[in-house]
Task: structure prediction
Amino acid sequence: MTPAESRALSAPHREAGNRPDETVSHHTPADALVGSAGPVAPAMVPRVAESALAGPVASPTSAPAAARVDEETGSGVEAPGRTRRLWWTGWTGWTRRRQDLAVGALFLLAALWVTSRLWLDPAGRVASLYTGDPAQVQFFLAHSVRVVLHREYPFYTEQFNYPDGVNLMANTAVLALGIPMVPVTLLFGPAVSFVVLVTLGLAGTAMAWYTVLSRHLVRTPLAAAVGGWFCGFSPAMLSHASWHPNIISQFLLPFIVWRVLALTRSHRPVRDGVLLALLVTAQAFINEEILLFTAMACGVFLLAVLAQEPARWSAAWRPLAAGLAACALLAGALLAYPLYVQFAGPMAYHGLSDAVQDYGNDVAAFFAPGSPTLGGNQRANINLAPNYSEENAFFGWSLSLLAVGVVVWLRRNLIVRALAATGGFFAVLSLGERISWWDRELVTGPWQWLVHLPLLDAVVPTRFGLITSVVVGLLIALAVERAWALRPADRRTVRKLVVAGLAFALLPIAPMPLRMVSRPPVPEFITADRWRAYVGPDQTLVPVPVPSMGNTHGMRWAAATNLDFKIPGGYFLAPRNGNTGDPGRFGGRPSGVGQLLEEVATTGRTPKLDDRQRRRFMDELRHWRAAILVLPVRQQHVEPLRRTVEELVGPGRQELDVWVWDVRTLTDHSV
Result:
């Protein structure tokens, strides 16, 4: 440490208090691009933060007496004897550790509030409307158990969609989440692991953004807390929380962004590139799409900064290029084989189905509150998003106006302008191929020219709104920081206006408990292991109806046994007709038996079968190496389904809470 740094560390600072050992860096992104070196001491924080704000910040060491009195009492009146302390004064008097613990506890309580209805009965409740994604995630969590305990191949499985199998790298197998959750899955089951991941995903993402913001962008803990809150509990995050823990688990993203910006001023770019590579590799096994979004957002943000001040490039490009090269080499080496399996391995596909590629936000979606919020209305939002699990905008009128107001207020700030450009760019991309207003098509969107590019052909465009949500959270943090950094003469009025504006904007989108519905329990025939008397290692248990995108209960049965038996079909992404390299679709090869039983389960009508259909359906059962067909006695339209199966394979018998058809003699290839 140099003598100058030593003197800076000993300088007084109102937020440092009695914490001389805390030398937290408070670089702003602007400082990162300028190339400032070394950590910034607490005494220097006001001058460092000034580059990220629209006006000067008074330093505690040089403020007049009246200003110091205001800082100590929370009042603008020069009254040395006054002892009244406002709540934020007590807050800033806490140590950094106490502040972090308090904020983390608040975020965790909020996440528990959001998931409270699911915690009441994790195995017996599921998000309303779409039950397929939670069942799929639980299946992947059970696969992680097999990877750890049985050393099963992690990137491909035949435990569903037998015998074709499923390319897990081409699906979201959440290995980076599932493997750490193996003890919970073993002890309590994949349903409990699912709700734990949702809870920690919301709270962890909010806490991660708070940590990065409080140490590298803003110095006011309240500003970091508000920004982190919105990044973790935005309407888009709440929308995905019911179904997609892999999407809401964004706790690595703030650190990836921080490390990318740090590369522009790094004195050890290779080391920093290695750290970035490790973060990138871990995120790739959580969700690759979100990782791609993060890379695109960093690129657009840096370009927006350099477009305003090109001179920054001369100091930033060398460490940035060296760090990114080191990151690409290490991450490329670590991910080379998994990515090979994903794009060239068995059951690999190229591009999503056309229906998903066309998912886009309606322009009006940015001005409506999200369904899982205090002011949300599912019926009002029905035509504004592809479905309720993809409400990736939904800020509401008040927050949209506040975000615009913040940009106008802080328009002289380079970082604010770059953030505004980044958020606006991805908001436009999130509109999809056709821009619409209240479900009325207006013009063709720019996404139409990008949708067929490599990598982007596997992106759901509406999810670009997640980037805009983060940008709004950062703008809110900068606005609070600016208000709290004003001179005493202006501070009280502006603070009141900012607090009132935040309440007005955030209250309508305050998070509410996720809507849940009951779901059928896993049959006792499965949980009591009665199936083991019938199903061998190379045979399948065929749930009725056959597992598909709309019928995923059979996947939950398999997950409850940690995938000890195989099933045909399922809900996953695979190439059309099972041909590796074809465009993707949901589900495997079309199945005559599967379509027949699904139609009966939906309509309740028993079809008439001829001998030709029976022979074709029996061929499918032989292809699956079916051992038994299992129909729960409480299945909807159970009688039409039972009669249909009996017409196919003969009479069955009831065992515990299911109907069972033993078809081993009919499907044995030797027979």
Observations:
- The chain is about 50% helix and 5% strand.
- Residues 1-30, 32-88 have pLDDT under 50 and may be disordered.
- The radius of gyration is 28 Å.
- Residues 111 and 199 are 5 Å apart (CA to CA).
